[in-house]
Write a structure and sequence with these properties.
SH3 type barrels, about 40% helix, two-stranded antiparallel ribbon, 6 helices, signal, alpha+beta
Length: about 160
């Protein structure tokens, strides 16, 4: 090998190493009311912790639409679906400076999903949905024991990859 090829390979290797460190050190925020940290990448995997809205996590690795993260506050690691995360920091108790610089945290989370006040108003005019029922459904919770029993009874976990 010539010196320039070795140098080029060395530079490429360094760039790949730096890129892997950047992914590993990336901070993300939980953008859902309660983010479920799971022991494996999949919706049927056991929930090992619940992360509150706005919680910061360190990105460790990726597998499809799942991210292996560790919670900054709890120190727990696990898998969470990408739809529950945002690259932007969510400020829950903003100072006046924060308010002037950014939208409210709930608006930020909805805007990240393509939803804002104007879209909501337009949707309410066009739709005959009973939003009180939607609000009720958002409050429903199902225990992990009930979910496990449902999966077992229905044999849903067999052959399920993700």
């Amino acid at each position: 090998m010539t010196g320039s090829i070795r140098k080029g390979l060395g530079v490429c290797g360094c760039l790949l190493f730096i890129a892997s460190i950047a992914v590993a050190a990336q901070l993300m925020s939980v953008q859902v009311r309660s983010g479920q940290l799971r022991d494996n990448p999949g919706f049927l995997s056991k929930v090992v912790a619940k992360l509150p809205y706005g919680d910061r996590v360190n990105l460790k690795s990726e597998k499809g639409d799942w991210r292996h993260v560790s919670s900054v506050k709890l120190g727990k690691s696990g898998w969470i679906h990408i739809s529950a995360l945002s690259e932007q920091e969510i400020v829950l108790n903003p100072t006046n400076k924060d308010v002037q610089a950014a939208a409210k945290s709930d608006e930020l989370a909805l805007a990240g999903k393509g939803f804002n006040k104007q879209v909501e108003q337009q949707y309410r005019k066009q739709s005959k949905l009973n939003y009180a029922k939607v609000d009720e459904m958002e409050k429903l919770t199902v225990s992990q024991t009930t979910i496990a029993k449902f999966i077992s009874t229905g044999a849903l976990g067999k052959g399920y990859a993700q």
